[in-house]
UniProtKB/TrEMBL annotation:
SUPFAM superfamilies reported in the protein's UniProt record: Glyoxalase/Bleomycin resistance protein/Dihydroxybiphenyl dioxygenase
Coiled-coil boundaries: none
Protein name: VOC domain-containing protein
InterPro entries: Glyas_Bleomycin-R_OHBP_Dase, Glyas_Fos-R_dOase_dom, VOC_core
Domain of life of the native organism: Bacteria
Source species of the chain: Paraburkholderia saeva
Length: 123
């Protein structure tokens, strides 16, 4: 349904450091690195992080967050560790979230720009 998603960011170096770490933990790679953007995916760029003069201001009450598919629980645990080590903030440790479904295993963080990110698997 969605070909790609672009998100405006304020600092490309900081963003690259954070997303290289968390996407790598999930088995994704930086597939594009241009003057004002980086893009991540497995086979093709899906998430574009683009320098913007006026990035959307994060609002924890907006409901907006980015959720990434993980292959297994170990990848989610690694995602959470990588997020915190790369300048992110904890927004929910790895674990089951039975309020979503019996096998919904996820972790949550806030990236350096203040956007909420999640990794999930259904194992």
């Amino acid at each position: 349904m969605i070909d790609h998603l672009s998100v405006g960011i304020a600092n490309l170096d900081r963003t690259r450091t954070f997303y290289d770490a968390v996407m790598g933990a999930l088995g994704y790679a930086r597939l594009r690195d241009v003057e004002d953007a980086v893009a991540y995916g497995r086979d093709e760029p899906v998430l574009w992080l683009v320098l913007a003069p006026h990035p959307v201001q994060p609002d924890p009450e907006s409901g907006l967050h980015l959720c990434f598919k993980a292959d297994d629980r170990a990848s989610i645990d690694a995602f959470h560790r990588a997020a915190l080590a790369a300048g992110g903030t904890d927004n929910g440790p790895p674990g089951l979230r039975p309020q979503y479904s019996a096998n919904y295993y996820a972790a949550f963080a806030i990236d350096p720009d203040g956007y909420r990110v999640e990794a999930v698997c259904y194992i």
